[in-house]
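sorry to bug you again but im stuck and you know this stuff better than me. theres a chain ive been looking at and ive put its sequence and its fold in token form underneath. id like you to explain what the token line says about the fold, in plain words if possible. anything you notice is useful, everything is just below.
___
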Amino acid sequence: MKPSIAKLQKIFRLEAERKYDNKAVMGGLSGMAPAWEGEARADELPEALVQVILTRLRDYDRLSPNARSDALKGLWNRIRKELGDGGESPPGENLPAAPQAEVKNEPPSAQPQPRPQSAPQAAPSAEPERGTPKAESTPQPAESKPQAQPKLEPRREERPPAPKPTRRYKKVRGARPRPEGPSAAFDAPTTVLDGVGPKNAEKLDRLGIHSLGDMLTHYPRRYDDYTQLKPINRLKFGEEVTVMGTVQSSAVRPFKGRGGKLLEVIIADGSGALRLTWFNQPWLGQQMKEGTALVVSGKVEQYLGRLQIVNPEWEPLDDEQLHTNRIVPVYPLTSEMTQRWLRTQMNKVVTYWAPRVEETLPQAVLDDADLPPLSEALLQVHFPDSLESLDDARHRLAFDEIFYLQVGALRQKKDWEARPARAYTVEDAWLDGQIARLPYALTGAQTRAIAEVRADLGRGRPMNRLLQGDVGSGKTVVAALAAAMVLTGGAQAAVLAPTSILAEQHLRSFQGLLAAEGGPLAESEIRLLIGATSEGEKAEIRAGLQEGRIRLVVGTHALLEEPVQFKDLQFAVIDEQHRFGVEQRAALRGKGDNPHLLVMTATPIPRSLALTVFGDLDLSVMDEMPPGREPVGTHVLVPRERERAYTLIKRELAAGHQAFVIYPLVEESEKSDGLAAVEEHKRLQEEVFSQYKVGLLHGRLRPDEKEDVMLRFRAGEFHVLASTTVIEVGVDVPNATVMLIEGAERFGLAQLHQLRGRVGRGGGQSWCILIPQEDDAAENERLKAMAETNDGFVLAERDLDQRGPGDFLGTRQAGYGDHLRLASLTDVKLIEKARKHAHALLDHDPELAKPEHSRLAAMLAEFWRSGQGDIS
């Protein structure tokens, strides 16, 4: 088995034993991808296989444990199939016990030294570029008689681990006293550091580092653990080890039979000698001249009876042991910057300034949440003394990020609830009568949501509720009945939609629900205001709203324009709320006197996001579908089976139905080989569906052109619509029964589920066909999940695990994603912990006016400075 594959096997097995917690290697499996890629190429693995493995490794930290298990097993089966390693079991099956790392004592000289409190000293500038590779040489270096070596003592023998205390922090280490000295220098530019001139400052600017304070929060992206050292004479075949030694010889020779060049370096440590080899990296020899002290890490292998390490990680041995013999931070870099130089600059700033950082959390929160001091967390997250202290530090800093989000959201909610609002109450008999008018029975979820909205409207404070439900779950009925409760009281209501098409659909729905026989409104009291509305009609609508003759208006952004004024706006509905920014929601609220607000989304929101990003809103969940609506049959086909999908579409067209065909691109591009709507539209019309009419819709069309295409499709003029994802939201074509999605692996689960929701809206069976770009992508986790379930809430949780929160945040991205550097919006346990302590703090001091909370109040103001609240 090739070394790079053997390394994967060991890591996969260890990950399986750890229940797929992404801690089998330091920094997670995604962090090992760059190093493994070099080893794979040295082993000359097939390029397609290398790319598949790298893709899985880079995406691994986004997956749930179950998805990680499936990914590793599928990947190992792929490796066995391509390389013929049939005798090996895949990870997670018949696993041997993972090898246990030895725990060593450090000699006194290796113990962490107290950090000096003097000001940072001068440091060398960035390292020079690598020189020209040395001329090749072929002599074989001798290994049998190592010369006298500098004393490079490994760690002493094992000691039993110290018992873990009940409280992790205070009994492990006490808080270091905050040294005297100024703290205002955190805003000082990086050029105050020795070794940072204008050119280096420009490089730091590209990393977002403009001040000393920015350096403290430029956290490492991963860590290399160089703490487990062994003498060379105690190395064993198959071990993953770190050794220190001095270069005895270095030679480059041609590699027989395979082409390329082989660098061989012999290092010794006084106990023995060890061969190191690198394939096709001859330039490294320039940095490994005789007498150079190195630290190397890798797997011990055997060649011609002698131990060696192939393609090891390596680093020159520093006297300061900043880069070796410790847990070493690895930082994000930019071009023309070396890891060593940045690490040196970070060490100067962190060791001097981190102890001077003022604590932001009250002592009561630190004690109750069992958190280390902020200064200690900053020291340990950059230059940790141990893996345990690193874990504690990252937990503290992640807690801070979520805690600030929670306090901000909860304060915003309390501020909004403190405002007065007009109360609206209705009798049970009235509500029962309105429900009886409906042509169908309500689901249990609709009944619960209506009860929650009714209670909100009667409290005398502004409703601020998020109504989330799957596509077709009946949110519009809830919104219409809520509007009826307010309209019965004599006030006005507004419905804001992101597109004209969706606004027109809402107009028809609200007219049918509110202006039919027995409804609270006449049809003339409900109007539509969109960009395409004529100027004369706009003027008429504006006058009607200002005079109160128009009771309910449905519209797009045109509703937000300054000339639109209401006589008495008391209820607002915002549909697909993630499509509107804070300013737009505030503009609509500003047209009334603290109106009640109901925001709706067809994108199910995972629990962790509901507790953070949407923590200022009350939540109603629509988790039932109306009776009689059949699930959409979902199938994954490989590209060569595309004709099967076309046959299905032709059968449905012959039965009088319609179909969507979705493409990931508008037009073909040199940068991407995916199918494109413009070119495929022509092929579909001329070659596939020549006896039918095929429409074309994409984002580059003008708004009026897009609207015209959709109206013609809905009217049945087009039988097939070739489109990009512009139809994802708001298109209601009950006659459409097939959704074919090309390049389906390019889309997220939430987006795929929204597209699927465009069909099956007219009753009867419907289908969603997913075709990836390549055959291999048919095993894509997202596509498999789509085929397994129609439950949008299940898919939302999986999408959050796999792709992160971006698709859910919409316009709330600002103020959330930018603030989270260590915390994850998928960590429900941390979110619930931070929310509990935020609630307790605000119950004790809602305004954060007490002296012990002054620093926290200032920090919150800084944290939220770039974001905005949702209160108008």
Observations:
- Residues 387-417 form the longest helix (31 residues).
- The mean pLDDT is 81.
- The first strand starts at residue 104 and ends at 105.
